[in-house]
Write a sequence for this structure.
């Protein structure tokens, strides 16, 4: 029997309409009852998934939120990914927790840089994609240009499932491909017939294998095509399936409860200083109060108050099933990458840390707040917002991030949530690499390069390099030492 769960993410370039589409899906699914007026900038541009202060100010999503809604007997778990290019690390981890994705493309702009990057992450993990070409009620590229661009730039077969009757000022509605074309204007009828002959028929297996994308046209803002999109996710998107793990992949029908933490979020409710670990349930039937053992420290924890997310509302979950995302309140015991299982011995793979591309020192404005700063940096590194490196020589902690916006989020949250005023100073280093390999060779290398060595928050040795050139130079000098740009927990 097919599971009634669909766990999916929405990916797009900033401003393609992802936040608006998220809101309309929640509205159609009954998870929210009032659509906010979505404007281009400022306070009004806030779907229910955008809750952090910096998001409200900038009108962008910088955290991945989870929203669950139900429609026609199907439970939809929507994971909202950050829309800003600087948050590729958080987005990557979110895409490890979904079974499919919706790719939103602006009809006027076609495929943009960030869309392409996110698509490559989906391809890496064989995540099937439904394409939604948004804003057809505005002037844009022709449907044929858009379809051919998806096919050419992403090397995907495309099957139009709908066809716009006019675009921009001439837009009159949407035609379902395969329906009779008698009532269509002659020019549109000709387009539909040409498209029907020129593009492959929809093949659900090719879609689920990541070789073909069904394409829907519409306008999230005007709610054109949104119902058809939800129906397509229900009908075609894959239910939960086996996920990569050691010693072997884990399928949903595996009897024990297993899952993995792909995100940790602190202070979602500022009144309670809470800390939620988001766990993707992979197998078994989870029951409230159940004891699960995390790979991180091996001591079972009882999950007394698991949370299901309905837009900004939360409900305590009495039970959950494979594909569901549950929030587990904890006090720093759970971290990104942890596997949780009824019995130890299983570890899910594929949730890496990435080498930072920007390194900075944190400068406290009030030196008496050192303890609060340490706590804040620990919290934020557990969430995956930043990485913290502790140099072997000197006391200045070094912050590593993948993109500039993470630094803005760091300062904003230090101030808003921890009442720590801080600034950032240049660091003498440009990038970092995790050090491994032969133990004797590693010790020799570390002894000879003490001034450039640090430890990450797990105590792993890290080489801080002044440039990519230095990384290559050092790697050639110490061939028995491995310098890794990613590290799995």
């Amino acid at each position: 029997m097919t599971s009634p769960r669909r766990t999916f993410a929405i990916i797009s370039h900033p401003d393609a309409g992802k936040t608006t589409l998220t809101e309309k899906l929640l509205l159609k699914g009954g998870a929210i009852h009032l659509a906010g007026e979505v404007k281009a900038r400022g306070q009004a541009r806030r779907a229910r998934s955008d809750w952090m202060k910096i998001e409200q100010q900038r009108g962008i999503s910088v955290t991945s939120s989870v929203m669950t809604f139900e429609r026609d007997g199907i439970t939809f778990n929507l994971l909202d990914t950050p829309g800003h290019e600087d948050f590729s690390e958080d987005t990557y981890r979110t895409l490890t927790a979904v079974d499919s994705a919706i790719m939103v493309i602006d009809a006027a702009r076609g495929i943009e840089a960030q869309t392409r990057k996110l698509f490559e992450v989906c391809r890496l993990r064989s995540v099937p994609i439904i394409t939604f070409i948004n804003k057809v009620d505005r002037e844009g590229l022709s449907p044929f240009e858009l379809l051919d661009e998806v096919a050419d730039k992403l090397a995907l077969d495309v099957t139009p499932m709908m066809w716009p009757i006019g675009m921009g000022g001439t837009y009159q509605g949407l035609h379902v491909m395969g329906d009779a074309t008698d009532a269509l204007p002659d020019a549109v009828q000709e387009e539909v017939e040409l498209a029907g002959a020129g593009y492959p028929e929809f093949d659900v297996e090719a879609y689920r294998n990541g070789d073909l994308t069904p394409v829907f046209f519409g306008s999230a803002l005007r709610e054109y095509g949104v119902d058809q999109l939800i129906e397509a996710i229900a009908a075609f998107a894959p239910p939960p399936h086996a996920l990569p793990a050691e010693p072997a992949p884990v399928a949903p029908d595996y009897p024990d409860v297993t899952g993995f933490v792909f995100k940790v979020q602190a202070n979602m409710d500022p009144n309670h200083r809470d800390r939620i670990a988001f766990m993707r349930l992979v197998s078994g039937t989870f029951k409230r109060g159940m004891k699960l053992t995390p790979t991180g420290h091996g001591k079972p924890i009882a999950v007394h108050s698991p949370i299901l997310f309905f837009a900004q509302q939360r409900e305590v979950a009495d039970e959950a099933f494979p594909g569901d995302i549950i929030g587990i309140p904890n006090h720093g015991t759970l971290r990104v990458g942890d596997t949780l299982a009824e019995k130890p011995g299983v570890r899910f793979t594929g949730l890496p840390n990435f080498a930072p591309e920007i390194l900075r020192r944190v400068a406290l404005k009030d030196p008496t707040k050192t303890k609060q700063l340490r706590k804040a940096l620990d919290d934020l590194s557990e969430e995956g917002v930043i990485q913290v490196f502790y140099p072997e020589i000197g006391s200045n902690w070094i912050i590593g991030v993948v993109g500039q916006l993470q630094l803005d989020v760091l300062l904003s949250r230090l101030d808003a949530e921890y009442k720590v005023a801080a600034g950032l100073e240049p660091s003498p280093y440009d990038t970092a690499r995790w050090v491994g390999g032969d133990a004797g060779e590693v010790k020799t290398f570390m002894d000879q390069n003490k001034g450039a060595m640090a430890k990450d928050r797990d105590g792993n040795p890290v080489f801080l390099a002044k440039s990519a050139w230095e990384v290559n130079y050092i790697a050639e000098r110490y061939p028995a030492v491995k310098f890794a740009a990613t590290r799995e927990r």
Summary: Residues 404-418 form the longest helix (15 residues).
